[in-house]
Design a protein that fits this description.
Layout (H helix, E strand, L loop, with lengths): L2 H22 L4 H19 L11 H11 L1 H4 L14 H7 L6 H10 L13 H17 L1 H5 L2
Helix pairs in contact: 3-7, 6-7
Length: about 150
């Protein structure tokens, strides 16, 4: 058999092997997506970037409810009864049972604690969620910022 035909035959055989190999190799795109998502999460964690959770209540409604029910004791995020236990970010991190998050604020508002009365029965769950959103959002941005406008 002349060299040309031998070379052509080798190319055909090699190409056939490659085609069979490629056809038997399948990509699970769902697995690729999972790996990409895990890589993105790892990159965010490694960068130190903190993404706060989405808030569940309505800030504007929470502000109205807060103004009507809480400003006697908590004007500008302060606490006239227990001055260390303000609604400032650092104080909520330190003193709020469960840490500074909406669920912990909802629990405190619903059940009360120490000198703070319970608002369960006086406010709806939705109203309490709105207050929690307002308190957490405002503690993040700063109470003074809200009132300097």
């Amino acid at each position: 058999m002349p060299y040309y035909y031998q070379h052509k035959m080798k190319c055909v055989i090699t190409l056939s092997v490659v085609i069979v190999s490629v056809n038997s190799f399948s990509i699970n795109y769902k697995e690729v997506a999972k790996v990409a998502k895990a890589g993105a999460v790892a990159a965010v964690i490694a960068s130190g970037l903190v993404i706060p959770p989405a808030l569940t209540g309505n800030f504007d409604e929470g502000e109205k409810i807060f103004s009507a029910n809480y400003t006697a004791c908590h004007a500008i995020g302060q606490n006239v009864i227990m001055p260390d236990k303000t609604l400032e970010k650092e104080a909520l991190d330190t003193y709020l049972t469960g840490g500074r998050n909406e669920d912990a604020v909802k629990t405190q508002v619903t059940n009360g604690k120490n000198a703070m009365p319970a608002f369960k029965g006086r406010l709806s769950e939705n109203d309490i969620a709105n207050v929690a959103t307002y308190v957490i959002s405002t503690s993040e941005s700063g109470w003074e910022e809200l009132f300097d406008e």
